[in-house]
Amino acid sequence: MTDQKPFVDIRHAQKSFGALEVLKDINLQVQKGQIVAIIGPSGSGKSTLLRAINDLDPLTGGEIWLEDKQINKKLPHRQYEKHINLVRQEIGMVFQHFNLFPHLKVRENVTLAPKMLKGLSEAEANKLAEVQLEKVGMLERIDFYPSQLSGGQKQRVAIARALAMNPKVMLFDEATSALDPELVEEVNLVMKKLAEEHMTMIIVTHEMSFAESVCDRVLFMDQGVVVEEGPPDVIFRNPKNDRTKEFLRKHLAGQHP
Amino acid sequence: MQRVFPFFLEAAWITILLSVLTAVLGLICGILGTWARLSRFALLRFIGAAYVSVFRGTPALIQLFILYFGGPQIGIQLDAFEAGVIGLGINAGAYMTETMRGAIISIDKGQIEAARTVGLSRLQTMRYVVLPQAMRLMIRPLGVNINALIKATALVAAISVVELTYTAQRYIGSTYKPFEMFLIAGALYMIIIYVTGQAVAWLDRKARIN
Fold first, then answer.
1. pLDDT in tens, A111-128
2. Structural domain tally of chain B?
3. How many contacts (CB atoms, under 8 Å) link A and B?
4. CA distance to partner chain A, nearest, from residue B25 (Å)
5. Dmax of chain B from CA atoms?
6. CATH number, domain at B68?
7. DSSP 3-state assignment of B59?
8. What range does the domain containing B112 cover?
């Protein structure tokens, strides 16, 4: 594994909002098929780091690479737009608040981008939507509008929408944080299924037990730096850093055993 | 009394024509204004903002006078009807710019992010994600703008366009019945506005169902 070239490579990532430095020299290498969880208190910069990967929150310093392509290359505006639109097709993203398109049916939510960007015909796009929605268990809701779905169902459709572009990496930004507790499991199951299919995933989460059961590696971030990282059993069972211990203690105190 | 009726109907037709042309020009100016105000270029944003504050910040009547009476001095020769449509249209466009811009910026940022992360361009995001949602939101407030613009067509009486208000004033002289003349004009305005209002409400309902 160590001699393998990283699939996602974040080098010296730095980000400031004015005088406030929210990411301080972050380095993260993710191998193909690896699943990495990023945990940490709110305001630690974990979401910002995730959103920097597809340039939703551009870095102010450092580089991000996907395979042999630099994502945040310096280019003139027009060229950069072209470049980033292509890069983003290869990176799926799932948001805390689902962000389904409310004016489109479930089917069209999934087919919009493939039709526009990959030139799929109506029939091909429909077939693709059926396959992806089947995968997340939402095929029977294909002709519903998002407003007719529960939170968990919306999130599963959002995952299908991202998968429809056949991404190389999936980013999850607190995908289950906005869900009622009884709806979390159905989304976690879909994510586990993706993990079994060896999808490369970077997951920002507050769910320690899920992170522990699914991830290959866990990063603990606080105040813009990676405080500690390692395999889940080490981070969760035997953390070395005091800040990690403190965070986990507080976090687990609020959860039932 | 009966003998003035045909003249009022003809005048009502002129008012309708003025309203329709003003609304069309207003929408065009509104789209351009919105595009400028939402541009990523500071100069265009400035031009858009200046357009809105100048035309909303001065009386429409003064704008009409400048165009119609002042225009010839700087080489703009328009007849009264043309000046009326252009003056009121540009004025209405400033209000519509704010209506459209308001609807567009009220769309949740998460919608734009979701569209961009699947790889859609700025333009595609606007066309397929933001605008379809914003259009539904702007139908009713644009209806309010159009209601105001229909009533503002009365102002062009002051530059002698023979529309409803001008016609009412004209026949006061021969009939000595200002009360009746203005009542007829008012009733005709109300019919025009009522029908327009119903059309807007119908469009709004239709957009909500789809």
1. 999 999 998 999 999 999
2. 1
3. 62
4. 29
5. 71
6. 1.10.3720.10
7. coil
8. 5-209
